[in-house]
Model the fold of this input.
Amino acid sequence: MFSLESCENLNDPGKIKFKNSVLFNLTTGNSKQKIYIYNTYPVNYSFEDPPPFINYDKFIAENAKIKIINENSEYSNFELVQEDTIFTKRYYTNASELIIRPNQKYSIEVESNGQVIRGSTITIGSFEILSVEKVAGSSYNISWDKCPGTMFYQLNIIYFFKDSIIYGGTRILATLSRNDNYIITTDTLFNVNYLSKIVSIDSKSDSMYITVGAYDLNTYKYFFEGIDKLNIENAYGYIGSSTVKSVKIIFKK
Done:
């Protein structure tokens, strides 16, 4: 969803203060949590060919030990997983074993590269998608209620439609999709109890998948203000929280 990076002090490019960069966004209600843990390198470090951006595994801290602590409970069952669709690995919790709750304090402890990293955050609240109403033509107004503790929202629309394409020299009817993203910051929301966004989709669409993500102040500061260390000790990165809701709409033809 966002660009991820490990940062250092560019005024002293030959030295790094921390050996790790940890990016952890706790998503409330999700059956699986994911965490990125990277090795950090000085900007004058010399990589061999091929360039490191082709081999992302060079940056992954593969032997990290991770704990999530909430009140008197502790969770440490993380698994390093290779994604099929991207060229990197990330740590995942096992599905349904840990459900992050809204408005709760969580602490994290990571052991990696001989360093112990600690941080904590209070998760944001919850919300619901209220309605999807046709406005005119192929435009729809999507509404959701306000999520407590949110600094910005991301609205993602994937809509599906059938169209003819050339495949293997033959014209066929295929199901295609398009993806639109919108960022809505709280400084545009004023004192309202719900939010809405009018979107336009392809007139041939037969369905669309709507996802609304609400993100906290820590996530905003890290990705939009470029602050490279938030709510975390002994590492670059941040610990933040989000709540994500989705709905699928099927259009009658």
